[in-house]
Amino acid sequence: MSINAERYDEWIRSSFIEINTELEEIYFAQDDPADVSLAGNSLRTLLHDEGREHITGLHNEGNTDEGFEAAFALLGNVGLYMGACRRHEITEPSREQSSPLIEASGLALHIGASLGVAPRFATSHLSTHNLARDGVYRSFTKLKDEFLFLDFNTRGIFAYKRAADALTRTVPLGITHPVTGDLLIAARQALEDVAAYNEQLFAQLDPARFFYSVRPYYKPYRVGKSEYRGANAGDFAGINEIDLLLGLCQAEDPSYSQLLVDKFSYMMPEDQGRLRDCMRRESLMDQILLGLQSPDSCGEYFEHNARLFLEVCEAHGHTASQHHNQLVDRFIEQPSSVLDQKHMAHITASGPPLEVLMAALQKLRDLRTAAPRDDIRSRYKDIASIRAAIGSPHR
Ligand code: HEM
């Protein structure tokens, strides 16, 4: 890391967090906590000016070629500043044609293009790639609920990645291999971990604090001329690797692959490669359906593995139901329903109106639970035929 980048990192880890936290306390104490225009002007100016001074130095320094890690961390730090400016409405994409943060945009576009990622902060900057110094990692504020949210996002993401790793290792073995069952058990256990983390997050996170003081930092913002959708905990490949390797979602389903295409640049380059690889693999479900046509020639482990496959599908479906029915409902939908109409625009991280986003998330949940829906490419009939063939009742 260059000296300028280090100083900037120190600023992000100190004054930046202090200013944001002070502003959050001011907004949260207001009668309308969603209105940022009522107070805090001098703090907002301080945030903008201090950040700009650091970034101008870095922008002038140009590409110092310090390697991927340093560049990616710097992109995250520039992104945190741009995300905070958006949160405090120092910038507002619908008000502007192009970001007024000219130096920050220049730096972010330069780094993003050279690394092959979107030129904004992504979830990985705050979760899986967030170096702690003396036990404290980067964040927007020092609010307890932000740390809770980030801790559990990170745990959930790593657990999904563990499940994806185990399933990926089944690819060269196939569904009839004696050891594939071990990998399916590992995947199921990892998904049970996701479920346990979701439960803890659901129980511990304060809905109002999350909604008013944490979530707004994840809104879309402009970098240069283009607006980039917000970050969300789903911007890693693991969850989609699981979808595809199990076969619950299919790369040839245009609405699902559209989602993947839109998400590539929000993932780390290594995740992009993993996901591309999964998109061309035959799923476990398709291998089982093929095997059912002549089960006697599939060897003695086929049925055992197929049973475990169904358990993994159930565990995956359960985490998707929790995400939609518990997390999204309690922390987004319910608080939105009491929000003044004037604040409804840009409520979601990705930008579309809430009902459009909810329908999209519901569709994903229904694919992952193999729900009986004929208007989407749910595999419920295939799952039912596997169950019938191996005599496995729905748990
Ligand atoms: C996407 C809400 C926690 C995984 C989303 C989206 C929302 C949301 C609203 C849609 C993206 C958008 O806003 O534009 C929440 C809330 C959470 C939470 C309110 C907790 C307070 C988590 C956790 C995980 C997770 C802990 C686990 C890693 C995902 C995934 C997606 C996503 C994978 C992408 C869509 C998908 O493939 O299902 N989340 N989320 N979320 N979230 Fe969460």
* Gyration radius from CA atoms, angstroms: 23 Å
Unique bound compounds: protoporphyrin IX containing FE
Main sheet characteristics: 2 strands, antiparallel
- Rounded mean pLDDT is 94
Low-confidence stretches: none
Number of helices: 15
Q: In percent terms, what proportion of residues is strand? A: under 5%
Query: Which word captures the global form?
Result: elongated
Class by SSE composition = mainly alpha
Fraction of residues in H or I helices: 55-70%
Which sequence of strands runs across the widest sheet? 1-2
Oligomer: single chain
SSE pattern, N- to C-terminal: HHHHHHHHEEHHHHHHH
Number of E strands? 2
Calculate the terminal CA-CA distance, rounded to whole Å.
53 Å
Which properties best describe this structure?
PrnB, binds protoporphyrin IX containing FE, mainly alpha, DUF1864 family protein, two-stranded antiparallel sheet, Trp/Indoleamine_2_3_dOase-like, 2 strands, 395 residues, 15 helices
Structural description of this entry:
The chain contains 15 helices and 2 strands. The chain has 395 residues and is mostly helical. A two-stranded antiparallel ribbon has the order 1-2. The longest helix has 36 residues, at 302-337. The structure holds protoporphyrin IX containing FE. The site of protoporphyrin IX containing FE has 25 residues, from helix 6, helix 13 and helix 14. The site of protoporphyrin IX containing FE (HEM) has 25 residues, from helix 6, helix 13 and helix 14. It comes from Congregibacter variabilis.
